[in-house]
Structure formats: structure tokens, C-alpha cells
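COURSE: Structural Biology Practicum
ASSIGNMENT: Worksheet 4, Part C
STUDENT ID: 0417
INSTRUCTIONS: Below are two proteins. For each, the amino acid sequence is given first, followed by its C-alpha cell string. Answer the questions at the end about the second protein only.

PROTEIN I
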Amino acid sequence: MADQLGLPHITWRLLRHWGATRMVEGHVPVKAAQERLGHSRPDILLKFYAHVLDASADAAAESLSGQLSGGMRAVEAAQNAAV
């Protein structure tokens, strides 16, 4: 079917990994994703999809850093206005 649609070679394994990655990126609880995939333990899911979590951690750090920087600018502005 993929050939008829002009799609690249798609396997069940590829679809499984895509689905698991989407669950991790979508912040589905690890326990729920682990059960959906049929893994016996959550650490198996984390072991194979840690790269997705690493990217999410980087995004979270950047977001928090930006919020803290913005908050510090507001504090500095308030201090300058009081002077």
C-alpha cells in the first residue's frame, strides 16, 4: 500500500517507534505508554526513547531560562523606577 501511495517503506516496527515517540513527546505518562506498548517495565520505554526526553528537557530548560530572565528584567525595572 505504501508503494502505491508513493510513501517510503513503512514497517510495523517503524509505526511502533513513531507511536511511542509521539506518546513521549505528548507527555503521556510513562506508565501509560509502557502499558500501551506492552513493555514489562517503564525503564525499557525510557531506555529506547531517552533521546526524545533529552530534547524535551532542553526545551524545558530554555523555557524556564527565558521566564526567569523576563522575571529578572521586571524586578530590575521596578528597582530602577523606585530610584
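PROTEIN II
(use this one for the questions)
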Amino acid sequence: MPSLSIKDVPEPLLEALRRRAARNHRSLQGELMVLIAQAVDEQAAQSASAPGQTPARQKTIEQIAAEHRARWPQPFKAGPLAVDIIRAERDAR
């Protein structure tokens, strides 16, 4: 497989990429591959979409969490606990 090399990356940018990779539980190489793929997919979607339309984008975990907090501002007070479900499944064996 061909390789790609980026030289003279500023240290603050490299450190930000490392933090982003760690936040997403990826290696730096994996995070860079995702970013490149997203950029290519986004560009292809923009060129394929009708003028004036914006392409669909994936939501970040922060955006999803904010939507859920807006929809359910109070935590659930009733319902089974995860530990109880796991114990019941284990005990059923």
C-alpha cells in the first residue's frame, strides 16, 4: 500500500492531533486516515449535491450528548440498573 509523509508539522498541531486520536481511541495514523477519508468524502458529497445544499455530516459525540441532554434534561429515576441486568443474565446460565 502506498504511504504518505507530511514534513515540518508544527508541534502544537501535532500535539492537538495526538490528543484528538487519544480522545477517539485511535492511533495517530488511524486518526489521520479518518480525517483524510472524511475530507475526501465531504468533497465528493459537496460536488455531487445540488447547488445551495449542504452535505450531510456525521455528528460528534459532543453534539449527540447535547441533543440527548436537551431532550431528557432530568436523569431517569426509574428502570433497571445495568448491574442488575448483567447479574440476571449471568445467573440464568
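ANSWER KEY EXCERPT:
Q1: The mean pLDDT is 85.
Q2: The CA atoms of residues 5 and 29 lie 11 Å apart.
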